[in-house]
Amino acid sequence: MGKGRKFYVYTFGCQMNKSDSERIITYYRQQGWQEAAEVSQADEVIINTCAIRQTAEDRVIGLATALAKLPHRPRLILTGCLLYHSHQYLKRKLPMVDEFLDKRKIEFKYRPTRKDKKTAWIPISNGCNSFCTYCVVPLARGRERSRPMADILKEVEEAIKAGYSQVTLLGQNVNSYGLEKVKIGKRKEVSLGSKMPTFEERYHFYKNKPPFVILLEKLVKYKELKKISFLTSNPWDFYEELIETIAANPVIDRYIHLPVQSGSNRILTLMNRWYTAEEYLNLVRKIKKRIPQARIGTDIIVGFPTETERDFQATLQLAREVNWSIAYIALYSPRPRTVAAKIFPDDVSYLVKKRRFQILNRFINKKRK
Fold first, then answer.
1. Which of 301, 312, 337, 340 has the fewest CB atoms below 10 angstroms from its CB?
2. For 120-368, which CATH class?
3. CATH 3.30.1490.20 fits 6-105, yes or no
4. Domain locations along the chain
5. pTM above 0.70, yes or no
6. Mean pLDDT, residues 273-284 taken together
7. What number of helices (H) and strands (E) belong to the chain?
């Protein structure tokens, strides 16, 4: 037990990590610990990590190194997505860390100690079944697991009682909520020139309404909620029923985050993304036609292995056609144990990646400032 002792939490990465940290805080408090106002007061520091890119890993290593040099050295606990690495790798890279905590032991078992004063972050699932070739999420968070709907609704009600009028539903693929147990077609081997999977091969089949639509329909009945948002969607699961539900309920956020990653069909195939640029564009057009106020945001990776200038120009052309409200653009960095790191050479130079980043960022983001 940590009675009288103090802890401090650092959080790197996405909103899911922020939500996880809110539950880690509760976990520590229930053990009798007190949350320190400053890291210098802490007996124990928990670093909730991100591993999506090498730069995120480097920042964690830098922080842990600095914390280990504090005059009053706190005990260092590492948790989060970096734990997808082997224990040997972590001990070699982070010898100053005293303990590695698998936060899946905490997951949905603890209610959050909310830090965001405006929005209540509500995770509805964890993990991912998509297995994009560049992504560590299935390795770091495991296969997709959906929370019971009754548990989600109970947490929403608790947030409302605490004074929240805005909620954001979180998941690595939020709109596939409740579909992980539905049998889907076997994925094809990823190879250069392989044929894109058909609609039937990639789609999640279900009876009646998709579970995520049912969840949204229940949430819109809470009159106290003024805004319902969700992150993040995958294009292959953005079904007609979801578009209709958003259109019919103004309380659901008109900002839709829809990661594309690339505008090149060849690169999308190598990434194991189950759509073409044309399908993505048609989906965006369908959304905007049914929801005229919709604003579309996206994620893009530049410099994926074998990405040519022609591939990049296809992404730039898609940007012209979609007119994204915002794009989070990343320079590709190979992540150990992912398929892309195993079978594709990281053959696009940093200078080329940086140039492509700057062109896209200037075209999509800078013009809106």
1. 337
2. alpha beta
3. no
4. 6-105, 120-368
5. yes
6. 93
7. 13, 13
